[in-house]
């Protein structure tokens, strides 16, 4: 929890005043047994009704004061824990959005979701209990011991012994349960991961009739999570019966020894009852302390997981802007190499240049590094070696916002968000006017089907765009990228769901109507790239060819083999 103590600095008032009011309630609670002792020793023993009623009213006053103090503390605790949760979620979400692809490889999506939800909830509960009980419970334990010593120092030694035994037991249980709580959170990550995969892949699961298999996989993960919780529960569950046995035994000893002292006149009956009440208070407070330690142990594991995200070092750093070289082409890639794991290169020694108005095609087998190149150009990760220059300046001298405004990527998987078509298109340009949206739709060959809808641009988009076909989603994603008028448009196999005619119309529109913009088309289809000004051929991350379609047919065996396998062209 100390890892996230910085969050509480923003809520000093709640953190200070909340426990203070809870401390006032505890003081009232500690005074009640002394008042009861006086009622027994004076009021009951001497049948003094005035004493009984007057001190009874005092107990009622203590109760009302305790309730009022507790309510004020609850308000502070609720306000603080909810605010802490909001701050943590905002900071974690903000940090995730700064991750490059390398950082994202450290965490699964399911794990990040759990850290944003379940782990933050655990920390919220810990903060609430910190304010409500972290001061009150220990104060009651120590206060009960002090009050007992004021009444009878010899019998107070029993309190001291009970406190020592229970504390040792509690520390042992905490040590055993700490690592197990972290294991519980990891099992929850696994369940979330399986659930996300199942929901995302419903069509594939049903197509292969693997519902039973996936059900079994989920059941196994749920059983493992249940067993992990049971192991923690068994350890935590030992504390309550152990402390109850110890406390009840201590009460028996107090009653036996106290009865002897009452008989010889060293202790009054009211004081003996007060000692028993203080022992009960101590027991209840120690149970609360135990629960707090259990909660804080679990919250500590969650805080560590949240802190892992917040402290994850970023591999991408922005450099100071440099003066542009006006003579350079729009995009220059010089001897660029990159790896995901810092061991094996995903791309090696890639070099190319692209001028305004030109089209670059990128082709290669699956896993050859085509999408990695797109990520580098979008600066979603930085190269390990070499340099990328855009508009005459190093790419890393631009802010990320500048890069994303000037270079737009349409990824392989067409992703739309719930809302309307208009709202999705305006992701590309929040200030886009109606005519700009129409223009983007026309270039992307999406105008006809959008306008055929009842509400046109204001038609609803379901989650993930599932109310549109794959080709329609791809065209809408291309239109969204075009609304921002980027200098470079990267289509990462984002026309794979289009028929040949629609794809040809799209290529012509991009070439004719966006002449000031460079286009990079990544595709598995050689026919889609043959009209490009130059084509980059990748093979296992290596650049094996760069030239026009006809040049590559003559000079690049890899490209010739791809073309021959698809169209038969170039066969000899």
Architecture overview:
Helix 6 (136-151) packs antiparallel against helix 7 (153-200), helix 7 (153-200) runs antiparallel to helix 10 (239-263) and helix 15 packs across helix 17. The protein has helices spanning 5-8, 12-44, 49-96, 101-104, 109-132, 136-151, 153-200, 202-207, 211-237, 239-263, 269-310, 370-377, 400-406, 421-425, 434-443, 447-451, 470-482, 500-513, 526-529, 549-555, 557-567, and strands at 331-339, 345-354, 359-364, 385-390, 393-394, 407-410, 419-420, 460-461, 488-492, 518-522, 534-539, 542-547. Strands 6-9-10-3-11-12 form a 6-stranded mixed sheet, sandwiched between helices. Strands 2-1-4-5 form a 4-stranded antiparallel sheet, covered by helices on one side. It is an alpha/beta fold and 572 residues long.
How is this fold's topology laid out?
Elements lengths: L4 H4 L3 H33 L4 H48 L4 H4 L4 H24 L3 H16 L1 H48 L1 H6 L3 H27 L1 H25 L5 H42 L20 E9 L5 E10 L4 E6 L5 H8 L7 E6 L2 E2 L5 H7 E4 L8 E2 H5 L8 H10 L3 H5 L8 E2 L8 H13 L5 E5 L7 H14 L4 E5 L3 H4 L4 E6 L2 E6 L1 H7 L1 H11 L5
Parallel strand pairs: 3-10, 3-11, 6-9, 9-10
Antiparallel strand pairs: 1-2, 1-4, 4-5, 7-8, 11-12
Biggest sheet details: 6 strands, mixed
Q: What does the average pLDDT come to?
A: 84
Number of DSSP helical runs? 21
Quaternary assembly:
single chain
**In total, how many beta strands?**
12
End-to-end Cα distance, whole Å, is 71 Å
Assign the structural class, choosing from mainly alpha, mainly beta, alpha/beta, alpha+beta, or little secondary structure: alpha/beta
Beta-strand content:
5-15%
Q: Determine the fraction of residues in helical runs and give it as a percent range.
A: 55-70%
The side-by-side strand order for the widest beta sheet comes to 6-9-10-3-11-12
Which stretches of 5+ consecutive residues score pLDDT under 50?
Answer: none
Radius of gyration: 35 Å
Molecular shape: elongated
């Amino acid at each position: 929890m100390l890892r996230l103590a910085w969050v509480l600095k923003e809520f000093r008032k709640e953190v200070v005043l909340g426990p203070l009011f809870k401390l006032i309630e505890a003081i009232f609670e500690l005074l009640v047994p002394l008042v009861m002792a006086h009622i027994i020793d004076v009021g009951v023993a001497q049948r003094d009704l005035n004493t009984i009623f007057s001190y009874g009213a005092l107990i009622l006053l203590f109760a009302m004061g305790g309730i009022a103090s507790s309510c004020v503390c609850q308000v502070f605790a609720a306000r603080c824990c909810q605010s802490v949760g909001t701050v943590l979620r905002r900071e974690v979400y903000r940090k995730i959005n700064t991750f490059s692809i390398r950082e994202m490889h450290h965490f699964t999506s399911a794990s990040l979701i759990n850290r944003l939800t379940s782990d933050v909830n655990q920390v919220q509960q810990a903060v609430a209990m910190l304010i409500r009980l972290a001061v009150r419970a220990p104060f009651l334990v120590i206060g009960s011991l002090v009050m007992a010593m004021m009444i009878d120092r010899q019998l107070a030694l029993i309190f001291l012994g009970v406190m020592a035994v229970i504390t040792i037991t509690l520390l042992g249980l905490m040590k055993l349960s700490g690592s197990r709580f972290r294991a519980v959170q990891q099992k929850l990550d696994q369940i979330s991961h399986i659930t996300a995969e199942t929901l995302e892949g419903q069509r594939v699961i049903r197509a292969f009739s693997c519902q039973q298999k996936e059900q079994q996989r989920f059941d196994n993960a749920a059983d493992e999570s249940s067993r992990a919780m049971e192991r923690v529960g068994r350890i935590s569950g030992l504390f309550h019966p152990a402390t109850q046995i110890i406390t009840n035994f201590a009460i028996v000893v107090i009653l036996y020894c106290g009865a002897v002292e009452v008989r010889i006149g060293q202790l009054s009956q009211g004081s003996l009852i007060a000692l028993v009440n203080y022992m009960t208070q101590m027991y209840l407070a120690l149970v609360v302390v135990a629960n707090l330690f259990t909660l804080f142990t679990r919250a500590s594991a969650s805080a560590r997981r949240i802190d892992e995200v917040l402290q994850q070092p970023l591999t991408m750093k922005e450099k100071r802007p440099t003066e542009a070289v006006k003579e350079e082409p729009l995009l220059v890639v010089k001897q660029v190499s990159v790896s995901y794991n810092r061991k094996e290169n995903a791309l090696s020694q890639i070099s190319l240049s692209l001028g305004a108005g030109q089209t670059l095609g990128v082709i290669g087998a699956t896993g050859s590094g085509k999408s990695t190149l797109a990520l580098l150009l979008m600066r979603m990760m930085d190269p390990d070696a070499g340099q990328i220059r855009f508009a005459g300046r190093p790419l890393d001298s631009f802010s990320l916002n500048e890069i994303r405004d000037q270079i737009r990527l349409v990824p392989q998987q067409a992703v739309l968000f719930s809302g309307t078509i208009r709202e999705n298109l305006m992701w590309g340009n929040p200030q886009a006017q109606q005519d700009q949206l129409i223009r983007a739709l026309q270039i992307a060959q999406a105008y006809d089907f959008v306008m055929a809808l009842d509400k046109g641009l204001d038609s609803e988009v379901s989650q993930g765009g599932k109310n549109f076909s794959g080709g329609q989603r791809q065209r809408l994603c291309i239109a969204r990228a075009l609304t921002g008028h980027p200098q470079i448009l990267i289509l990462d196999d984002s026309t794979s769901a289009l028929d040949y005619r629609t794809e040809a119309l799209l290529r012509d529109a991009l070439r004719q109507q966006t002449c000031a913009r460079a286009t990079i088309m990544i595709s598995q289809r050689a026919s889609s790239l043959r009209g490009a000004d130059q084509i980059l051929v990748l093979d296992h991350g290596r650049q094996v060819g760069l030239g026009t379609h006809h040049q590559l047919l003559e000079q690049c065996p890899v490209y010739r083999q791809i073309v021959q396998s698809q169209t038969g062209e170039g066969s000899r």
